[in-house]
Every structure is written in structure tokens, then in C-alpha cells.
Amino acid sequence: MNAKDYISKIKKRLSPFFDFKNPDNEKNYLPLQLLGELNETSERYLLVRKFNIYTINNDEYLFVQSFNDPITQNILDAYTTWVETKMQALKPRKNHMTSSYLLVLVSEYPISDEQKQYISMYKYHKDYLLTLKGWSDLALIVVDLSNNKLLTNKFGAKTAKNFEM
Length: 165
Fold this sequence. Notes:
Elements: H1 3-14, E1 19-21, E2 34-46, E3 48-67, H2 73-89, E4 96-107, H3 113-121, E5 125-127, E6 135-144, E7 149-152
Parallel strand pairs: 3-4, 4-6
Antiparallel strand pairs: 1-2, 2-3, 5-6, 6-7
């Protein structure tokens, strides 16, 4: 399976949940092939809808890019730093609880052992107003198409089954 087929398969699998947008690669300084957003709202009521006990918003942002050349450490650093910057710029709205950022990098070449260790140890977490306005986590998923493997960080392991080949 090549990267183009893999990305179209993932888009088809996630399309019932995510709203996909055309990546504006001029606005975003890093190229992306797939950009998706999921906004979920949960509410609890007391007897009738008029008596709302609480409302919670959970958001997910999906960034997917494939590479025809081997993924280098510089590429990993550039994309993770770019998403971290997006997380820092997030202004949580009224009922914000969590925002999950999913960075999926697809490679047709094997991933080196050093990069495997970097991916598994990578962690980025952002609190908003000491978690009173929610928090964000970055899930890093690297797809190694040559070996049919998914490499994830701890947070990415929770959603890895959605990205299996």
C-alpha cells in the first residue's frame, strides 16, 4: 500500500466523525494532505432540557502528511513544534474541556531506531487556566508503510486503532 491509498482509506474511515477541510498550505507554513476537525458537545439535564446541569465540549484536530523520502528528525521536530504552537494559540471557549491534536505522519520508508524511541517518549500537554478551562494533548502517530507498523506516543496509543492498515 502506498501513502496516497492509505490516506484515502483513513479519510473514508474517519469521514463520519470528522469535518475535513482543504489544507491551506499557504496559510499553514507546513504542507498537509489532510486536515480534519471534530467538535463534540455533551450535556446533562435535570428532568427537562430547560434545566441544564452542565455542558462539555471536546474537540479533535487531525493533521496528516505523507513523505516520499525517509522521515528525518528535523521533519519530526518541525511538525511537532508547529502543532505545539497551534495548541499554545488555542483560546478555549466557554464549555471547553479537552482538545486532542492528532499528528499523523505517513512514511513509505522504514523508521530508524532513534526515531522510534523519540516517538514513543514524546509528550506534550497543555493546561488552560490550571485545567479550569480544560487541557490539550498531542497524539503523535507515525505510520511505517514499509513494515506495516504504527508508532505512537502514549497519548496516540489511545486512538491508534483508527489508523491501522
